[in-house]
Every structure is written in C-alpha cells, then in structure tokens.
Amino acid sequence: MRSAFGAVRNEQWNSNDIFLLAKNAVIDSLPYFYLAAGSQDNIPEVIYQTHELAGIFRKKKVRFEMHDSEGGHDWLFWQEQTRIVLDCILSRLK
Predict the structure, then answer these.
(1) Residues 6+ positions from 94 with CB-CB distance below 8 Å
(2) 20 vs 9: CA distance, rounded Å
(3) Where in the chain are the domains?
(4) Partners of 69 in the beta sheet?
(5) What is the pLDDT of residues 19-61, one digit of tens each?
(6) Mean pLDDT across 74-94
C-alpha cells in the first residue's frame, strides 16, 4: 500500500481506502464481490486484510463470497481463482 499511496496517509490514500469505502458504502449500490486469499501468500497483510474486508461486508450485509485456498501471491493462484470467479459470474448471469 505504501508504494502505491505513500508512507503517510493523505487525501489520495483515504479516497481509495477499500475499508473506508466499504464502511461508508450504500449497500444497494454495491455489486456482488468475490474475495480470495491464498493460505501461502508471502504478504501476510493480504490474508489478514482480505478477512478484515469480509468482516466489514458481513456486518453491512454486502453480497459476497470469501474463499480461502491453497496458494500464494502468484500467477498460479490467480489463474485458478480467475477460472472460479468467471464460473461464479456465469452462474449469476443465468
């Protein structure tokens, strides 16, 4: 996050903070969310923050699904999750 938004929280950081956006969102305006975290992710914050976001979604009753799967922060994990999320989207379009 710091490499994208800087070391100090600023307006850009706050206006793009997924946690603030989720907490302040109007539920009816939100799409369905698909969250996934790899159990071997080498960036521990990713696992924690994905679960933190899922907790906010649960509290606000946002429509979403959360998947904890084998894998790390790499293309093999994303490739598998892309297939799964595309199947999820397809099933919702039927």
Answers:
(1) none
(2) 13
(3) 28-93
(4) 38
(5) 999 999 999 989 999 999 999 998 888 899 999 999 999 999 9
(6) 91
